[in-house]
Amino acid sequence: MEPQTVLEKAYQLAGEKLKDEPTGHDWWHIHRVTRLAKLIAKKENADEFVCEMAALLHDLVDEKLVDDKKRETEKLAEWLADNEVPGETIRHILDIIGTLSFQGGTGTKMSTLEGRIVQDADRIDAIGAIGIARTFVYAGARGSLIYDPQLEPRSEMTAEQYREGKSTAINHFYEKLLKLKELMNTETGRQLAEERHEFMEQYLVRFYSEWNLGNGSGL
After folding, report:
1. What percentage of the chain carries pLDDT values higher than 70?
2. Which residues make beta-bridge pairs with 168?
3. Measured between alpha carbons, how far apart are the two ends of the chain, in Å?
4. How many Å apart are CA 77 and CA 188, to the nearest integer?
5. Span 135-145, mean pLDDT?
6. How many CB atoms neighbour CB 141 within 10 A?
7. Contact status, residue 96 vs residue 49, Cβ threshold 8 Å
8. Which Pfam families does the record cross-reference, listed alphabetically (predicted)?
């Protein structure tokens, strides 16, 4: 099957599966990550097909969104094989998807350039103005507070603690988002992350100024 035909089917599959996903991992997240992955792949001279496919399909087996990651990965492998993607390419795509997640900073390092590119693209969409919006959507979907001054951000945690432990939207900045700029894999990723990182820092300054308005002022 022609690569473009497979890509078109992957776009359709991701759109159908994630169109109503309410945690910020919806189709438009996939659309943005795929666009970023294609941009970075061109600049870094990577395999654009692998990058685009992995970006399109990465949240179909995300443990935050599915009950059985292993089973969903098997189904995705079957889908790729049915669409005549070569076995080595399937393994490459699934390896990227399987190691993409942040997991509280405990995740496995990407072993290929294409994996590093897709990971950068996914992480860039987690920061900046869009990243802030997604953080609050995710917190709301998971029943977390916006902020609790008595709940300190967690510094050391397992992947399970990161997923299941109690946190807030603002704490998520410290537990993940503000760390991502330094974790970019590619030069292009680092350049794209810089301005978004600065915007988050500015946002937090403004957030705390509004949160603390009137404290000790007699208002």
Report:
1. 92
2. 145
3. 69
4. 30
5. 95
6. 14
7. no
8. HD (PF01966)
Does pLDDT of 4 surpass 90? yes
What local confidence, expressed as pLDDT, does residue 122 receive? 97
For residue 116, give the amino acid letter: R
Q: How confident is the model over 69-97, as pLDDT tens digits? A: 999 999 999 999 999 999 999 999 999 99
pTM given for the model = 0.91
User: Which residue type does 66 have?
Assistant: V
Enumerate residues 6+ apart whose C-beta is below 8 A from 155: none
Estimate the crossing angle of helix 113-124 against helix 48-57, to 10 degrees.
40
Give the pair of three-digit tokens for residue 36: 């970023």
- Domains belonging to the chain, first-starting first, are 3-211 (1.10.3210.50)
Annotate 101-138 with DSSP letters as a single string: --GGGTPPPP-SHHHHHHHHHHHHTTSHHHHHHHHHHH
Q: Which of 114, 88, 105 is CA-nearest to residue 158?
A: 105
